[in-house]
Amino acid sequence: MSGSTGKPEAMLRELGVGHIGHVHLTDTDGTLFGPTSKHLPCGEGHCDIPASLAVLWEGGYSGWIMIDGWMIEDVYRAARKGKQAIDEALARFQ
Question: Is the pTM of the predicted complex or chain greater than 0.85?
């Protein structure tokens, strides 16, 4: 993701949704530590979660979406926020 400065929705468009096998859904604060960034609940970081979910929907994605709570202090809250983001996307597109 270009040193954590990229936009996931742009990467999804460029790569093509047909090449996505499964999704780890999380937000990020945009910093890097080691090979990854600090994970945050959906909607609390710099990622445009609705835009990424829109690209997946428009591309016909039908695989798994795992709400990624890795190293998030309150994983239950992160799971609720991730599910809320998915539910809101489904309501927009169905």
Answer: yes
